[in-house]
Structures are given as C-alpha cells and as structure tokens.
Specification:
Distance between the termini: 70 Å
Strand order of the largest sheet: 8-13-12-11-10-9-14-17-18
Strand content: 5-15%
Number of strands: 18
C-alpha cells in the first residue's frame, strides 16, 4: 500500500474495526475506472468482454438529483437512508450536503469496488462522518444486522428510504436480495414486538411486579456466563434442546451425553427429557404466558432456569431452583440496577426461548453448538414433541396462515411467520460467528443456513469428550447471588420511594395539561413570548418524564398510546403552526395516558409491594 492509501485504511479501520477483515489485497482486474461527461470518476465491472458502469456515464450529479427527488427526507428530517451500493460515493456526499441531520447506512457488496473506491477517492471523511455507517462485503453481514437494529426502530421504520444504486440490482442481484431480506427481517421484528407488547400488556405488568421483587433475591446471567466461560470447553459442545416434533426421533440419544456436553433445554422440552431420565443442566423460559403444565413434572422444581423480567411469574410457585435473569431491553430494569452498580448481563434474543439459549451458548464461548428439536416448522402438521403437552391439535393447513420453506432434505415443509423470523435470526447470528461450529442434529424441519446437518448420534460421537465428564449443573449453581445485602437494602429503598415520586409526576402532568390548554387558546400568536414560555414548560416536563425511573414502568401501562405518540413524533407538518398543533395534540394524548397509568400503577404497587415481606407461598406437588 502506498502511504496515503495506508493512512486512509488506518482511518477507516479506526472508525469501523469490523472492516479490518476486508483490508487485504484482492484481484481488481475486472474493475475499471472512467470519467462521466461531468468529469466524475465512475467504476465499471468487466464481464464477458463488456464493461458495465455502476454510475451514469453522462451526469453523476443529475443521477443523484433524480434519486433524491423522491426521497422521504425531502419532507422529513428524520428519514433514514439505507443504501445498497457505494459506487463512487457521490450519492452519499449529496445526501450529507442536502440533509446534514439525516442518518445514512450504506452497504457496498463488492470488496473489489470498495478497494477501488479507497484507491481513487482522495478524502474519505464523508464515510466516517458521525451520521454515516458503512459495511462492505458478505464478511460484515453480522455488523449489518447490528447496524439495522440500531438505526431502524419503531419511530422511523415507516420513513426509511431504501435505495439501490443504478446497475447494482442487475449486477449483484443475489447480494441485493439478501440485503433486502435482512432489512425486512428487522421490520418484521419491530412489528412483532409492538404487537406482542400491546396484546399481552396485562400479563407483562403482572409478571413485572412479581419478577422485579424476585430479581432482588436471584441471580444474573452475566455471572452465569462468566462461570461457564471459565471452564475448558474443548470437546464439550452445548446442546440446545427444543421441543419440535423431530425430538421424538432422537431424544433417547441424549442419554449418551452424560456430562460430555452441556444440555440446555427450552421449557417445552423439560417434560420430554425428564420422562426419559435426562436431566438438563439449565432450562429457559421467557414467554409471559407459558402454560404451567410444562413445569409440573417431578424433577423440574430444582433445575436452574434462565428467565427475563417478562417470564410467567406463576412458574416460581412450582420452582425452587436458581433463576438467572437476563436484561431484555426494559429501560426500568437497566436503570434500576445501575443505581446499585449492578450489570445484570444481556443476551441477544431472536424472539423465541431457543434463541436465548443459543445466545447463551455463544457468549459462554462454546466452540461447538448442536441444535436438537429445532424444527422451526410443522412436519406432519405437528408443532411439538408428543411428550410436551398432554393434548395438542395438528395445524390446519387450509387456514392460510402457513407457507412452505425448504427442509433439511431439500423438500418442503410448512412453517409460519414467527417461526420463519426465528430461522432468519439463527442464520444471521450464525453468519456473525464464523469461528463456532454449528450443527443441526434435529433430523427434520426447516433448513437453517450455516449449520452442518447430521444425525444426533454422529454429532455426539464426533464432538463429545470421550474421556471425562463435567458436572455442568454444579458449575451453573455455583454462581453468586445478583445482590449483596447492602445492594438488596438499596433496591428496597428505591422501590419504597415510588409512591411519593408518582405523586410528584401526577402534579407535574396536571400542570402540563393546564399549559397545553393555554397554548391551544393562544395558538394564533406563535411569536407571543408567553406561548414560547409555555412550549418551553412542555419541553421541560417531557425531559423529566424521559429521565424518571417511574416513567419507565408507566410506559408499560401506557404501551398503545406510547407507540402511537412515538410513531407520530417524526411526522413533519407543512408549516410551523401545524407543527405546534401536532406537538400539543401528541403531548395531550401522552399526558392523559400517563395520568391514567399513574392511577393504575398506584393500585398495583399497593397490591404487589407487600410480596417482599410475605412468607414462602405454598407450592403444588409436582406431577410424577
């Protein structure tokens, strides 16, 4: 590398460490440069003796203007640009000039084109700008998933501009379709989360109050990961056991593991395993409405369990074992624990409990991870292992809810939207962890790209330690409690101050409603100093709500209104007067929602807080 080019690469890697993987010499013989009629450098790809240019040969400026003319950012300063193809970088430059406050994510699918860009562009500062993020090639797909997760959310997904640069769609169609697949998978994830939050709002609230008190005396996933990570795991794979119908084929083989690997089981797989005399080393449950019948089989009560703040709190009536909480995005939990200097730990979830265990195995540094019972589909129209539930009906294919995907044999199998989203999550996560060996030993179900397909018998014989066994369940149970005595005392004190803090918020919101009425009565005089003062008061109230610990809980009571306000916040009006009207309307809706939420939260607080002091509840006898 010449000195100038080396400096540019050093600057690039400093800002994007994950691009270090693509900084290597590559054959650029099929990439050429030329100049457009407006004297801009353009790149071409030589195929079959013909050169295909990635930018306009006539006027790059006019091409950029044409693309941006229909951009959502023309009317909305919050629109996010998602661009497939960097090309000569002119479009990114134009966006930064015209829309300096908008964020841009650009993916260049070709390492060769990117290397040519680095060689020919003198100043690369515009792609390491704080408003720009870039990924290059398939090696950075993991970073792409994370970027999409960070940049696209409930507030802006509907005002996102997805742009494919000219010729890229024709020359790199497979890469483009994969790029779109990742983008739309993120959209599906956002919508599923919104629908779940609204549909199960009551359950979330009930579980939250029980579980936040339970958390004080339980354990954290960060310490769990540390304990497992410290063990030598060479030739000790992690077995993630789900309860798909294919589990009936090979469940008996898991008896051969016997400490030669760590068995992690989802809640629906507990009963099938215990019935066969197989004791998992840890189980997991995160579903807020998971049926209690799954936990009533003898032997379940003492198993260590991975949970989050939303899991079905009634399970602890049946469970005496250690519960390891993970942070799953709730603002209150994170901020609450930070006040005691505690990091609960977080594991990525793709929406299903199997995803949580999969992430746990990855973060615990297992070199080999084996999937069992992970059908992600309905082979023979069945949804679960026959031993999971006492009775379960087959799916109705004619309902229109189900569709076909490729199975591990190259045929087709029926699946549904949520299962397909989980499968995409597994594939994306696998692509981000190339150093780990992933084996699909389900022996049925949907094909998960990136896994080796083999029988469970072969996976055990090939991967498990043949000389010694580890007592994985003891390693799990040796973790320290999340809080020491002082931290527990502090946590109780914080919860104890909530009633007076809620009263303060109520008074503030009542004042805010009066301020809104004053603004509405004088809305024709936007330059009036009094109105400016009133608007500033509203902004200050919103700031207090943003920072309030109690408001993080109130958001659960106010979920549907909160989503409505969030999605309206980035809608821009044609004039200042309309914009102020919209702000007043949204604030009024928000404040009314918060005031109702305070009333409901005060009732629940009084009902649940006494749980700190009550004795151990009577536990039903497990079923043999």
């Amino acid at each position: 590398m010449e000195n100038n080019l080396e400096l540019k690469y050093n600057k690039l890697i400093y800002n994007y460490p994950y691009l270090k993987e693509i900084v290597s010499d590559c054959d650029e013989s099929d990439v050429c440069t030329a100049k457009s009629l407006d004297e801009k450098i353009i790149y071409g790809i030589v195929k079959n003796g013909h050169t295909y240019y990635l930018d306009s040969k006539y006027s790059v400026d006019n091409e950029c203007e044409h693309i941006l003319r229909s951009s959502k950012a023309e009317k909305n300063p919050f629109a996010v640009f998602i661009i497939f193809g960097l090309g000569n970088g002119m479009l990114v430059r134009k966006i930064r000039e015209r829309f300096p406050d908008n964020y841009i994510y650009v993916h260049e699918p070709s390492e060769k084109i990117f290397h040519k860009f680095m060689e020919t562009v003198e100043d690369i500062d515009f792609i390491i700008d704080e408003h720009v993020v870039i990924t290059v090639g398939e090696k950075t797909r993991g970073a792409r998933i994370e970027v999409l997760h960070e940049m696209v959310d409930i507030n802006n997904f509907y005002i996102t501009d997805v742009i494919c640069m000219p010729q890229y769609r024709n020359l790199m169609i497979d890469d483009y379709l994969l790029f779109l697949n990742d983008f739309y998978a993120r959209i599906e994830q956002i919508i599923m989360q919104k629908n779940t939050d609204i549909a199960f709002n009551g359950e979330h609230i009930e579980n939250f109050w029980h579980n936040i008190l339970d958390l004080i005396d339980q354990y954290g996933v960060k310490d769990l990961i540390k304990n497992i990570e410290n063990e030598n795991k060479e030739e000790y794979p992690a077995f993630i056991v789900s309860a798909g119908p294919s589990l009936d084929k090979n469940i008996d083989m898991l008896k051969e593991v016997k400490g030669r690997g760590m068995i992690m089981a989802v809640d629906t797989a507990i009963k099938p395993l215990l019935k066969k005399g197989i004791v998992p080393d840890i189980v997991a449950s995160v579903d807020p409405h998971k049926p209690l019948e799954l936990f009533q089989y003898r032997g379940t009560e003492n198993l260590p369990m991975l949970v989050d703040i939303n899991y079905n709190s009634k399970i602890d009536l049946l469970h005496n074992g250690k519960r390891f909480y993970t942070w799953s995005g709730e603002p209150f939990v994170k901020e609450f624990l930070e006040k005691m200097g505690i990091d609960l730990g977080v594991i990525e979830s793709g929406g299903s409990v199997a995803c949580n265990l999969f992430s746990l195995a990855i973060m615990s540094k297992f070199e080999t991870i084996v999937l069992i019972g992970q059908d992600l589909a309905y082979p023979n129209k069945k949804g679960h292992s026959s031993a999971s539930y006492d009775s379960e009906s087959n799916i109705d294919i004619e309902s229109g809810k189900y569709f076909k995907v490729e199975d591990i044999y190259g045929n087709h199998v029926y699946t549904e939207g949520n299962m397909n989203a989980y499968r995409k999550w597994f594939e994306a996560t696998i692509s981000r962890n190339p150093s780990i060996r992933f084996i699909d030993a389900t022996e049925g179900g949907a094909k998960i790209k990136g896994t080796e397909i083999m029988t469970l018998s072969s996976a055990i014989n090939e991967c498990c330690n043949k000389l010694s066994e580890k007592k994985w369940i003891k390693i799990v149970n040796d973790c320290p409690k999340l809080m020491n005595k002082e931290q527990r005392k502090q946590a109780i004190e914080i919860l104890g101050k909530m009633p007076q803090n809620l009263e303060y918020l109520k008074e503030m919101l009542d004042d805010g409603m009066e301020t809104i009425e004053r603004i509405r009565n004088n809305k024709g005089e936007l330059e009036n100093d009094e109105i400016k003062k009133n608007i500033q008061e509203i902004m200050e109230i919103n700031s207090v709500l943003q920072d309030s610990l109690e408001a993080k809980i109130l958001g659960m009571y106010n979920a549907e209104t909160g989503y409505t306000v969030a999605m309206s916040a980035y809608r821009v009006k044609e004039d200042i007067k309309s914009d102020v009207d919209d702000i007043v309307k949204m604030c009024e809706m928000s404040y009314k929602g918060y005031l109702q939420a305070i009333e409901n939260m005060q009732v629940d607080y009084n009902n649940y807080l006494s749980l700190i002091h009550i004795s151990e509840p009577t536990r039903p006898e497990p079923i043999s």
